[in-house]
Amino acid sequence: MERASSLDYYLVLPGQDERDPTTAVEGIVVEEFTRQHDYSTTGLDSAGWTPTSGWWSSASLSRAIRTDPETLARVVPTSRREAESVYRTLGGEQLPDDAVLRTYFLDHQPIATAPPLRLGPAQPPAGFHERRVYRVLFAKDLRAEQVTSLWAAWRTPVDGTNASAASGRLEKDGDQLTWDLRRVGHTLAWCLDVTVLLSTATADAVGSTLSDLTSVLRQHGLIPVTTERFS
Questions:
Q1: Nearest 10 degrees: Cα torsion 64, 179, 114, 200
Q2: Is the per-residue pLDDT at 161 higher than 80?
């Protein structure tokens, strides 16, 4: 069984002009977002590893992964299990556990935050005490078959809005969460808008659902950029 990890793993492919037919992967990047108590993003920690340089930390690499097309094309989301296999193949021994990997996070990348904007009605519907809206931004693109896969996995209604590529709905202990995946902008490829209606005293469902949805989209090839709260 694969060990659970709260970190995000990426494989770094060689550049187009550096392709060696015997080398499929150049290195590994490990990342973790820092968040406020409401689960919005405040920063990003990361560390990279290559056989020749070992472990190193660079906030500029995390920025480039999300803003530079050439770097973005070379980075592929992966699982810890696959990262462990690649690590051994490239000459490492046992990939360090999460606690050790965090000690390599030496160059923190702050992400600007602001008080939540108010989008939609201020008051939640009857039966709920709070309404929240989140937007998770992603870099990279999705192929048509990947969108179809998400559409099926989330059981997107056939009569869903045309502005949404895929959507879903979840009820958890009386809380209600709905989400829509949309293509956005010129530099950021996709966003996931999540509306949360809370009826319980805690917001535990918010963090776990945002994490699960982000993980699913990473598995489909997208790279998370930030999570903003709008209400």
A1: -130
A2: no
**Three-class SS of residue 19?**
coil
- CATH 1.20.58 is held by the domain 130-229: no
pLDDT, tens digit (0-9, with 9 covering 90-100), for 14-52: 986 555 545 689 999 999 999 999 999 999 999 999 999
In the chain, which ranges are E strands?
8-12, 27-35, 41-50, 54-56, 75-78, 109-110, 130-139, 166-172, 175-183, 190-198, 223-229
Can you read off the two tokens belonging to residue 25? 């992967």
Burial-class residue 16 by CB neighbours within 10 Å (0-12, 13-18, 19+): exposed
Residue 1's pLDDT band (cuts 50, 70, 90) = very low
Distance in angstroms (rounded) separating the CA atoms of residues 180 and 167 = 4
* For residue 2, pLDDT beyond 50: no
> In whole angstroms, what is the distance from residue 117 CA to residue 213 CA?
22
Look at the block and give the residue holding tokens 């970190």: 7
Tell me the C-alpha distance between 95 and 101, whole Å: 9
Q: Note the pTM of the prediction, 2 decimals.
A: 0.90
Question: Average pLDDT for residues 163-172, to the nearest whole number?
Answer: 90
- The full set of domain ranges for the chain reads 8-110, 130-229
Question: Which single residue is written with the structure tokens 């992966």?
Answer: 78
Those residues whose C-beta lies under 8 Å from the C-beta of residue 143, and which sit 6 or more positions away, are 221
